[in-house]
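Our consortium's second objective concerns turning raw sequence data into structural hypotheses that experimental partners can test. To show how far this objective has progressed, the report includes one record in full. It was chosen at random from the queue rather than selected for favorable results. The single chain below, 441 residues long, was entered without modification.
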Amino acid sequence: MDCQHVRWSMRMKHIAAVIVVTAVLLFTQTYTSARGAEYKIPQTVDMTPVAEEPAELYALSAVLMDGESGRVLYEKDGERPLANASTTKVLTCIVALENSPGDDYVQVSQNAASQPEVKLGLQKGEQYYLEDLLYSLMLKSHNDTAVAIAEHCGGSVEGFARMLNRKAKQIGCKNTYFITPNGLDAEDENGKHHTTAKDLALIMRYAIKNETFLHIAQTRDYTFSEITGKRTFSVHNANAFLDMRDGVLAGKTGYTSQAGYCYVCAWEKEGKTFIVSLLGCGWPNHKTYKWSDTEKLLDFGDYNYEYETYWKEPQTGKILVTDGVEDGQDIGTKIYLRGKCSVTAYDREKEVLLKKGETVTCKIEIPQKVSAPVLKGEKLGRIAYYLDGKLIDFYPVYAEKSVEKISFKWYTEKVFHDFFHSLFDNVCNFPSCITFADTIS
């Protein structure tokens, strides 16, 4: 019986050990605490792919972009520099809106009036309201209108081109160089007029944040006159995709012999915003290729991507402070403080578009130790969120309290304090030490 009891006891201990080890392994796989921690935030919704990634597109270069974050969700040679024709006018419109009021008088020059088709038919010396010309620019893509706007806002076509390129850099474009405001093929000592599908998507993403731009881009028909009222014009929106799919926010077509058919658009559905940009999407007799490619890319984005909340409550742990003193602690005592990550309720609900299988990784990027002095509220590190190795968001981590640095003054005060405290204790504990009551008795 004793042997059986021993074997039973050993077996139970073995089972308990296996359970403990298994639990530890499961825990360490899901979360690693303290500094440098990295853990994955699981998906909470079923995102089974419905549409396959587009295997073939007509466009030489294409990008599908998340309109909220600017993240590229799909690309085909997305950073290849190519001529982009009248899609240039998206940036022309937004730069004009940001630099001149809509009720400005625009005087037509001979240079503007002599631009090739497609054009409104401006005549030298005429005047128009800037706002009216912006409808002509975006709805019918008139080349003479673009030059008149450029000369008014930039002083000259060259001056306005500098404004365009400066704005493109501010938006985040990496390989865009515009020479003309209308997108006609051009070349100078710095290169050819061009952009990339990725840069063009970034430009549209920026433009749709402007309410006036959206209103213009969504207008079907617009009528206006030159300022004296002698001539009246009616323009119809050439962006056929507005009527091909609900939720189109804005779009701009383009064509030149070098660029081929080009298109850029923004589309919104159920809170998701997608940008599609296409360059070199067919040449004459293939005018509809751009609609086919746009449909494929938007379907792919809509069916495969859903919003996921990526916030995870951080566990920063303790941070060791060296060469510090706190509340009179002795030299050499370890002083610890905690990091604090201040976030709002809105931050805790932040979302990112994810495809099935994609995971957001959270990293706690704070040091194991810091040197005093440390001030309350001092930045110590950050809680960072990564997707596919790219930083998508972060929150600073601050010190919860201050820690004073050990100084000569502190040393001096401590020596005096310890010396006199020790002396007082020795005197009071000396055998001959008597009290006043003992003396008078």
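The partners drew two points from this record. The longest strand covers residues 260-269. The mean pLDDT is 85. Both points have been shared with the crystallography group to help prioritize constructs.
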